Amino acid sequence: AKRSHPRKYLGEGLSVGAGRRAGRGYSGGPMQPVPEFEPVEHTVSVLLLEDDPDFAALVRRCVAGLSGQPALVAAQTLGEAIVALRNKAFDLVLADLWLPDSSGLDTLARITSATTCPIIVLTASDDPGMRNAALAAGAYEFVQKTEFDSSVLARLVRLGAIQARTFRSLRQSE
Fold it and tell me: In this predicted structure, what is the pLDDT of residue 42?
């Protein structure tokens, strides 16, 4: 007796492979096609907290040159930044710690209490203990303004985007 083909046709391009016998190994109902998902590109959203207009302009120019076209929102005071964080979910915060309405690690503490996204501290402070104190207080990274350029920003935005994607994925899976 001639055996039929080892794959059983189920319609619409679906089949069950060889080695499957009725009643063994497969207990589900009719097979369904796997949906095809289009990858959803997420524009990285960055909040810049900076009161120095010249440095803010430099950051804007650097962001404009990045691939992926990150969206940048700027705030000049901690109060403006807190309002922005309440109204929008950001992927990354770039923050100067010395502002007209807040200073030092108090600025960082207020930002960390308002968001779960990574916070990159940008500072002109040359206090050697400030880096360790900022990282211990919740900063994701610490960058001296004198070391800031487009390649540093590109690296930070990329890392922030990876972190944000991970957090979004975890929240969606809960």
Answer: 65
